[in-house]
Each structure stands twice: as structure tokens, then as C-alpha cells.
Amino acid sequence: MSYKEDLKKRSDEIEEILADYAPKGDSPALLLEAMRYSLFAGGKRMRPVLLMEAVRLFDGPVMLARPLAAALEMIHTYSLIHDDLPAMDDDVLRRGKATNHVVFGEAMAILAGDGLLNCAMQIMAQNIPYENARYLEGYLRAMTEIIVAAGHEGMIGGQVLDVLSEGKGADKEALDYIHKHKTGALLTAPLRAGALLSGADEEQLAAVSAYAAAVGHSFQLVDDLLDIEGEAEKLGKSIGKDAADGKLTYPGVHGIEATRTKIVQLHQQAVKNLKMFGDKGDFLKRTADFLAERDH
Fold first, then answer.
1. Nearest CA among 97, 71, 295, 57 for reference residue 198
2. Domains in the chain, ordered, with CATH?
3. What's this model's pTM, rounded to 2 decimal places?
């Protein structure tokens, strides 16, 4: 099976999980429609896929991982809705579709994002396995990992510095912080959360964390390059916006060739940290290959 076929199979699993945990209940119909519009707009579902893979890597509780996987994708989706707003990146295209605020208006888009974030927290809290002594601590640690990664010490902190750095010129320290927190945190958290849920030991957790950090950094650098050299049709979003908005990017600070070199180095680091897992780490190895070479 090719990697793309394998990823599609795993993405389909995430679609089924999202269908089970999708926003519902006593809410205005328009709010639910706006939340579901972005949640089911497609995408690779890479973050929940990585969480489920980490659980399987350590023979962990797949059923307990499902609400965590759904929550992760809801958090990621809310961040995209808010990121596309006129006050942020002011984008009109996401995953090949009109962005949420273009379809539903800015106020409803903000509320849809807020709704998805809180729905994610609700799902994780409602599924805490209080009566499962074996996995209770791991679940709580995994849940905490995701919440911290999404908050002011993680993704939001990185987004704030991203906004504050616009048009300010090259700042390597700020760039490193943005990459580690804005994108890296929510790509590292799934693997760490899956490992924590499954009871991985410290050595295993360190290896998974190092792999995740390298892959997360590589992912952002490839994104930076694609905004310069990519095709809008393949990406499903606008290109050239980073430069137009004065965004702080790796190619902008270090140059395109240095960015390509760094991606190769990060890929090597990621693969190196999988050696201890042998053949069980094959999907993660192929994921590192894919993320380093992707064109969308």
C-alpha cells in the first residue's frame, strides 16, 4: 500500500471519529452549521492521525484515544477559522473552499471557532475514564498536553508573536519561537499525548518528542516554501500572502536554499529518533518523508 493510500485509510478513520463527536445539541442551527462547515471541509487530518498512530505504536487504548483525536481536530479547525479572519491573515480560501467568515460573516466565524474550541474541551472532559485505573492518569496527562499546546504557552502564544512580528524585519529568535509554538506545538502534542495515554516510558517519550519536534519544524518550513513556490489549486489556499503581509518566515530570514537544507536536516533528525521502534515506526518514518517532500 502506498503512503497516500495508507494516509487516506487513516484519515477516513478520523472522519468516522469526527462524525461521532461532531457538534450537536441545544444550539442555534446556524452556529452548528458554521462549526460543521469548517470541521468537515477536508484536509489530511494529520494531527489526529498522528495521535492514533502513537497510541498504536505503544499498543495503547485506541477507544480512549478517539475523543482526544476528535478534540485535536476541532482545536486545529478553530485556529484556522480565526487565522483566516480579516483581523488576522484576511484569507478568503481554505482547503479549496470559501473561508468561514466569507460564508457566515465575521461574527459567526468567531463564534464558530469559539464553539469548536469549547466543544473540544467538553469532549475530552466528558470522556475521562474515571473507572479505568490503568489508563486514567495517562488520559489526564494526554488531555493536559493537548490543552497546554493549544493555549497561551503554545499555539496562541506563537500566533501572538507572529502578529507582533509582521513588518518588523528579520528576527531569528522570534522566528524560532513562532515555529516552535504556532505550528510545532499542535504537531508535537498529538504524538506526546498518544504516548502518555499509552504509558510510554521516559526514553520512548523522549524519542517520540524529538521526532515530533523535528517533523513539526519541517512542516512549517515546507509551508513557508509553498507560500512562495506552491500552486494555489493544489494547496487549496492563497499563496504569496506571507511576503505581502510582511510575515516572519524562514526563507525570509535565511533564504530559500538554506530553508531546503534545513528541511533535509530536520528530516534526518526525525528518522533517527524512530530507530528504537523498528518496523513499528514505519508509518511515522513515511510520514516524515511525506511532510518533507509534499507539494500541498
1. 57
2. 3-293 (1.10.600.10)
3. 0.92
